[in-house]
């Protein structure tokens, strides 16, 4: 089976990660355990996850002209992602300030930087969307750019997967053009009936795996493998990228594969640094843990 061609339209950030025993309450200062800078951003994480899981991936996004930019580009190319659609915008790259506690839970503040300059798509971007099997989007770049990509995908029979994160309301018209929505529990609650017109809704459930609602309205659940959680940052992105790679094989197989990939992504610190390759996903599935 030929690997699917996936166009990922989205953000790329340098994650500034502080680890701590517990996250501070408002107004409180706590001592941290460590600090690391790890490339991330929901778009880049999903592109890297899809590529490492076996997809052919093009990333449409933007980096800045700061000290982080070369490392951000390198993590994409080093993971086999086509960066022809990666533009450079004068100014800072996107960053995310992340705090991870000893339970592996995180809080994240994103400052968009160059991602906010993704205000339009050129002819080459649109051609990439039209040529792709799947368009994969999140919400860390301007929504009008996502809307035009989604419409173009629909006009060209490209399957549209949207991960509406960080969550915000999108127009009903946009949701009508989406084939698959991937949301976590909080996003599912926030969006509620807005997801009604979407034929496939996938809800990620952390350690409990994921569930899928198809066009017939029936829900099915898939359990993920049990793992020792270090850091959940990027686990949802890894799930989504892996899901896109296997989507053509049907929701049951795609969710099983994506749950395994997402679980593995929680076993190490950092977003892109913890994204597994296909052999590791296959191994944990074969082990049946
Ligand atoms: O989903 C995790 C990602 O959210 C991080 O890598 C961070 O950059 C933010 O975009």
SSE topology sketch:
Layout: E1 5-9, E2 13-20, E3 32-40, H1 42-52, E4 56-63, H2 69-78, E5 86-88, E6 94-101, E7 106-111, H3 123-131, E8 134-137, H4 143-155, E9 159-162, H5 172-176, E10 180-184, H6 185-191, E11 200-204, E12 210-213, E13 219-222, H7 235-246, H8 251-265, H9 278-287
Parallel strand pairs: 1-4, 1-8, 2-6, 4-5, 8-9, 9-10, 10-11
Antiparallel strand pairs: 2-3, 6-7, 11-12, 12-13
The structure holds alpha-D-ribofuranose.
Descriptors for this entry?
UDP-N-acetylmuramoyl-L-alanine:D-glutamate ligase, 289 residues, single chain, four-stranded mixed sheet, binds alpha-D-ribofuranose, globular, 32% helix, nine-stranded mixed sheet
Description:
It is a single chain. The longest helix is centred in the C-terminal third of the chain and has 15 residues, at 251-265. The chain has helices spanning 42-52, 69-78, 123-131, 143-155, 172-176, 185-191, 235-246, 251-265, 278-287, and strands at residues 5-9, 13-20, 32-40, 56-63, 86-88, 94-101, 106-111, 134-137, 159-162, 180-184, 200-204, 210-213, 219-222. Helices cover 32% and strands 25% of the residues. The chain has nine helices and 13 strands. The two termini are 27 Å apart. The strands form two sheets. Strands 5-4-1-8-9-10-11-12-13 form a nine-stranded mixed β-sheet, sandwiched between helices. The model has no long low-confidence stretch (mean pLDDT 96). It has one domain (5-23, 33-124, 132-287): Ribokinase (UDP-N-acetylmuramoyl-L-alanine:D-glutamate ligase, 3-Layer(aba) Sandwich), CATH 3.40.1190.20. The radius of gyration is 18 Å and the shape is globular. Helix 1 (42-52) packs across helix 7 (235-246) and helix 7 (235-246) packs antiparallel against helix 8. With 289 residues, it is of the alpha/beta class. Strand 12 (210-213) and strand 13 (219-222) form a beta hairpin. Bound molecules: alpha-D-ribofuranose (RIB). Alpha-D-ribofuranose (RIB) is lined by residues 11, 13, 15, 40-42, 45, 96, 108, 110, 140, 233-234, 236-237, 271.
